[in-house]
Amino acid sequence: MLITSVLRCSKVMDKTLIELVGHQTQLIVELGEYAEIVHWGKKVSGAHAGFRQALLRPVPYGRLDNDVAMTLHPELGRGVFSSPALEGHRNGQDWAPVFTIIDVEHYLNGIVIKSEDNNAGLCLKTELFIDRHDVVKTRHTLTNTKVGIYQINRFANTLPLPERANEIMTYYGRWVNEFQTVRAPLAHGGYQQENRRGRTSHEHYPALVAGSKSFGEMSGDIWGFHFAWSGNHRLRVDVKADGRRYMQAEVIYLPGEESLEKGKSISTPWLYATHSFEGLNGMSHHFHSHIREYILPRSFKEKPRPIHLNTWEGIYFDHDPEYIMSMATQSAKMGVERFIIDDGWFKGRNGDKAGLGDWFLCESKYPAGLKLVVDHVNQLGMEFGLWFEPEMINKDSDLFRAHPDWLLAVEGYEQPTGRNQYVIDLQNNDAFNYLFERLDYFLSSYNIAYIKWDMNREVVQPAHLGHAAGHNQTLRYYDLVDKIRLRHPSVEIESCAAGGGRIDFEVLKRTHRFWTSDNNDALERQTIQRGMSYFFPPEVMGCHIGASLCHSTRRRHNIEFRGLTALYGHMGIELDPVKEDQKERQGFERYINLHKKLRPLLHSGRTWRVPTDDDSHQIHAVVATDQSEAIVIISQLTMPTHSLSGCLRIPGLDEQAKYRVSVLDHPSNYDDIVNYQPPWTKLGCELSGEWCKEVGLAMPILDAESAMLIRFERLN
Ligand code: GLA
Predict the structure, then answer these.
(1) Which of 311, 342, 520, 574 best tests ligand 1's pocket when mutated (most atoms within 8 Å of CB)?
(2) What string of H, E and C letters represents the secondary structure of 583-628?
(3) Biggest CA-to-CA distance, the chain
(4) Where is the Glycosyl hydrolase family 36 N-terminal domain (predicted)?
């Protein structure tokens, strides 16, 4: 084995130990014939030889005679009775490959391991990196080096978990109810989730957290995982019969979908992971910092995120350019910075039953063209954005009438529609090129700064020329976005899939914002946004103020609760501003101004999900990276459990510094005569960061479904 450019590595017995170091955590990887992570946790100084000696396992009676390592690439042939990393065969042969390391490249922050199995004619490359925010990423690449096609059934990323990881937090959800979390003990049987919906999905968000018993927001040992893939996947956390445990993530390949000719390779998606010994908040800090530094497209980092007005819930399919321009005029008066025309602008699109695929301006709705509207929006000082759903087709469209064979379908079978539509086969080059040409046409012909890229149905028959092709369909979607981004690098993209159905790290590499949910109900949004905040920073979370009567739940909320709920992320308005009364418009203006003032802090600071004394409220804080200020949103979700709600304690401030505490926004009925509110909420007060963290401030009394905004400013 050759090890190049070694940072810190040592020989222990006949093996080599390599240390990969983040900010607070480390990985110690043992390399011999195979690679095993022997420690992934808090950084510990000292000699490797001692560590290794300490971790040598006993060999229990009644099992294989030797110790069996839980490797980065579990193989049955080495006696690892876990879910194997690779399942495949060459016409029934070469089905049990055992790889041996032949070369390791060692970089400052990672290793690239090359292994081979000459009998099976396969080569494996394993990449493992850790960054300065403690985020680990890993993937494998398999190459067929022998004559004859190698058929791949499964190909997974595997990371070990220590035995003290005995509880998990996983996600579930649905349309208008994304990012719901559930906790469960991690015991025999482990946990498995399968997503077969053809997109990241609302139902099976590809991430989970494993940790020590009762891990919480502020405490506990945590290992968080995010699988960066926007199609079918399987996630598994397994408890082996001997008590060891591991996490595994893979693409679900459909039958016969992936096979390699000699010389060809296939890679798994990246699995991202992090260890935090400071609970879930610590985990989120790692992922948020990683996203900000490495995932978000570079060129947009400095630009403040413009406040949106999206037309969807305001006018739906009812497009009249004169009226839309009056909406734009009203939006600009309220301080909106980007105006987006949603669905309904193209040929044949008068409802959700027809038109998808015909990406030509609807001339009967826009007889004077689109430029008039775009210019109007630009003259008002706003950017212009437009909605597309490129991957989709209605049977009632010119495109389908001309190219019925462009459907992603298994020939000879009917398939159910989703929102009356079908998916286009992106592996068909003519279809792919047509979509690129149409998007390119609009982006080249008009001053479009932004597109909302939607994907409103699930994929049930992903076939190309009769062969299963779900994996490739997702890769071609990435290709299409990449090609557009290359041609129009200054255009920003929002990823939407009936709300939050395609939210993952791989999409974020090529887009700028997610439409979090079609649910604009402020109360429901509290839970949805909280769930998303575990892995994503606020600036990529699209949060809109909707109409007071929420369209998805028919619940009514006042402007203060809607405003403060949308304030937290990348803010927008989604209604018809022309129809709103003066009082509501003043409300929008108020929260737009607040957001503009606070967004530099919101979009760069550290997010804290603040523990509360009473579950009836939810508290969210963002603390500046230099700890000079913080803002806190207290949201009262239901009636307080008791007449007094305990104390508000804020973590993350400079404990030695003094802060001025003041209320920036509260419900309009806050000063009514029913309750006497804590004096600090009227007069403000000055407190040390340490007091704020350890003791706190008396909580105010808030009605259910209301919120309050508090500011902390450092005085010294
Ligand atoms: C999806 C999106 C909505 C809107 C509609 C338009 O449902 O999530 O925001 O764009 O499509 O048809």
Answers:
(1) 342
(2) HHHHHHHHHHHHHHHHHHHHCCCEEEEECCCCCCEEEEEEECCCCC
(3) 84
(4) 35-248
| Nearest ligand 1 atom to alpha carbon 518 | 8
Alpha-carbon distance of 146 to 225, in angstroms, equals 34
**Residue 10: predicted pLDDT:** 55
Decide: 392 in ligand 1 pocket, CB within 6 A. no
Alpha carbon nearest to ligand 1 atom 1, residue: 498
pLDDT lower than 50: segments of the chain = 1-8
Residue 40's DSSP bridge partners are 27
pLDDT of residue 81: 95
* Residue in 238, 343, 518, 654 annotated catalytic: 518
Find where tokens 């909420």 sit. 681
518 among known catalytic residues: yes
pTM: 0.97
**Cβ 682 vs Cβ 675: under 8 Å:** no
Closest-CA residue, ligand 1 atom 7, reads 498
Q: Does residue 456 have its Cβ closer than 6 Å to ligand 1?
A: yes
Domain boundaries, the chain: 3-56+67-295, 298-600, 608-714
Q: Which two structure tokens, joined as six digits, stand for 31? A: 């390399």
CA proximity to 392, closest of 354, 357, 343: 357
Residue corresponding to tokens 């399919």: 317
| Cβ(501)–Cβ(515) below 8 Å | no
First-to-last alpha carbon distance for the chain, in angstroms, is 57
Distance 430 CA to ligand 1 centre (A): 26
Look up the CATH superfamily of 3-56+67-295: alpha-galactosidase from lactobacil brevis (2.70.98.60)
Catalytic residue among 94, 117, 343, 454: 454
Which residue reads 């609807």 in tokens?
A: 362
> Is the CB of 496 inside a 6 Å radius of any atom of ligand 1?
yes
- Return d(Cα 582, Cα 544) in angstroms, integer: 19
CA–CA gap between residue 174 and residue 501 (Å, rounded): 8
Please indicate whether residue 454 is annotated as part of the active site. yes
Residue 451 CA to ligand 1 center (angstroms) comes to: 13
The stretches of 26-121 forming alpha helices (DSSP H) are 48-55
Provide φ and ψ at 637, rounded to 5°. -85, -50
The count of other CB atoms within 10 Å of the CB of residue 191 is 18
Pocket lining: 454 vs ligand 1, CB cutoff 6 Å: yes
Closest by CA to 23, choosing from 257, 215, 282, is 282
- The pLDDT value recorded for residue 297 is 79
CA of 387 to the centre of ligand 1 (A): 9
Compute the distance from residue 373 Cα to the ligand 1 centre, in Å: 21
Number of residues that make up the chain: 716
**CATH topology classification for 298-600:** TIM Barrel (3.20.20)
Cα distance between residue 276 and residue 24, in whole Å: 8
Among residues 138, 181, 140, the alpha carbon closest in space to that of 160 is found at 138
Tokens linked to 251: 């693409």
Q: What atom in ligand 1 is closest to the CA of residue 496?
A: 8
